Fold this protein.
Amino acid sequence: MNNIQNMAIYLFEKLLTDKTRKKTENVILKIAIFSFFIHLALIYLIKFNIIGAPENSELLNNPISAVYTPFSFILIYEVYLLIYYLPRSFTTYITKQYEIITLIIIRKLFKDLSALELSTDWFEIKGDLQFTYDLLASLLMFYLIYLFQKQGKRKAISNLKLQPIIQSFIAKKKIIAVILLPLFFLMSVYTLVVWSSEFSKSFNSLPTFENVNNLFFDQFFTVLILVDVVLLLISFFYTDQFHKIIRNSGFVISTILIRMSFGVSGLISTILIIVAILFGLAIITIHNKYERNIVDDNVFN
């Protein structure tokens, strides 16, 4: 076990350090900018009839929708950050999950902006109505994530005797992070290759937008559920405190609700995401009240 931990720590220091993070950020931002201009070029080639427009070309009708592509690469970087923060902070790791699903909604808004039908029948047009729901939901999620981060920064009880236990838990989380990095990389490459293959074979009939929007991330959140369950089980070795067990269990439920949102569409999907973040916020708020209560008991006893 020590050899595995040592190998994981070595790989972690190579792949998930602050220096590597900055290099990854730089590379992905360059790719995002390049992809934006490629997408933009395709839109104008179709607009000037230089190439034919495929069916279901929802992302190739308007220059605004070109923002969708760089946002996809920004989301990939957010996945990297989620793995980066996993051993460092459990609440930051959960926050990154919420940020990723919010960015997915924002990315969808750019696509929907290019297809809005501005008319007096706004609330009778399905696409415009869904845009309204997503717009309001993104604002609400942004605020809920702020509240979640605020709760996550509350200091827990400081106990030096627990430091060796905490370090052992962090070492195991580093093993999980080192496993996740190549796994998510292979998943993203596989998704890109399969989609590119289907795209090249049937350029005249592209997949529907909902299928494109859910590419990779439905499988991604499925894996996150498994990771959250593993973290929950490992945490039993290091704490028997009721409020911490409930907190970790609640985060698993929150991730499951997010994953469920990919299985439905429209308003139900948006509601599931908001409920997931609200549930996570409620869990961490109550957890922090437990922490403060324990501190007060220690002071007065």
